[in-house]
Amino acid sequence: MEQGTIVRLMLDKGYGFISSQDGQDVFFRRGVVSDAEFDDLAEGQSVRFTLEDSDRGLRAGSVFAHGGEPAARRDGVAVLTGAEMRSGAGQITARGVRNE
Questions:
Q1: What pTM was estimated for this model as a whole?
Q2: Pick from 21, 43, 37: which is nearest to 87 by CA?
């Protein structure tokens, strides 16, 4: 898996570009973001991604805004993205969110 930084986001058009560690700009589209909502991404954000060939060159096959890691924690409270909630990635309990 590659690491990089989002350098350009076209939220209204549903795509963006990631600058990989070797300096290449890699295209990605809304549908390949796996662990966050596309609209919640930001330029300058670090991401992990897979590469795949296309007829126009390399592109991101999957993009992980949280590095493929479990839900982020903010002030001791788990924060689930909309995608994680829809997929049932965590259960809300009296003590917080339990990831399974």
A1: 0.65
A2: 37
